[in-house]
Predict the 3D structure of the following.
Amino acid sequence: MTEANPGLPPAPELLPWHESAVRQLQSAWASAHLPHALLMQGADGLGKKALAAWLACAVLCECSTTALQHCGECVNCKLTAAGSHPDLLWIEPEEDKQQISVDQVRAATERLGKTSYMHGYKIAVFAPAHQMTNNAANSLLKTLEEPPPRSLLILIMSRPSALAPTLRSRCQRIVVERPTQAAALDWLQQRSGGTVSPQLLEFAGGAPLRALEANAGGAFDDLDKRMTLSLAALLKGDADVTQIAGEWSGKDLPLSDRLTWLDLWLTSQARAAIAGTADLVTFPTRPAHLPSLPHTLNISTVYSMVDRLRELKAQLTRTALQRELAVESWLVALLETLSPPRLPIQWPSRGTSLQESRHTR
């Protein structure tokens, strides 16, 4: 059978914006009402895995009697830190796979049904849970409906709507909120030891850990520069969609980061059009270095392109999509959206000759 625990859990860490979620968990633990299944949701880059690892450590810790904590010194804490605790299963998509398979879920639920090795809780963490196959989700549903005693299932996800309602309804939600921009920038400055721009945080969707990763080694500035150059070449006609699609689908930069950049770029165009300025900016609040379009954008069409872009990004995480072909199709639609509107053909009115019509134009 497929191994249920292909990867090691991350180091447990509580971050400042975890405070509300931690209070909720500690209150449930203190009142002996910790549910058997938790749906830990929030945007990517908020440290949900680190929070889930902390929760697993605390639940397994020998010192967690009335207070939810982990001492770091007991046998259970040391086993958890080493990634070898027999009662903790961390289930992620296997290498080179997009989804958690039904075999992985069956192996995990089978293990949950057995006696605890350490005579305590048995914990299974599914990350990300919204990337389970349909068969895997159906298999997990049986365990959620009839959970084994002293078991805890933690489902981590950034897209709760992608999980079947039958599964969501059997879990208690733990929402990991984004920090305020000021709090996030303050934390980023302390962690990185330097100034972090608000534009970087916006690119990261307000998620500090994503921003920290994007800031490493100037990755964000490199992405911004390269996307600006390739998009400018496309708009000026110096490159075609096939060439750009091939470039963006390569492995030098993550395609998901390119799509996120495009998302923010397009929404900035819509905001600029609504505000009454014709300037196209490459990124929110940054100087414009793409040519302005000589016509008014159709706002609804631009937002339709944003929706298509987000759906494309979601599909990339769920299926083995033909990346280059999908990007090329989106770029063709983008050029149509940004092209000047075609003038309607002026047909001559009755009684007017074609020669007269041409003369009057």
User: Anything to note?
Assistant: The domain at 16-177 is CATH 3.40.50.300 (Rossmann fold). The beta strands are 37-41, 88-91, 122-126, 151-157, 172-175.
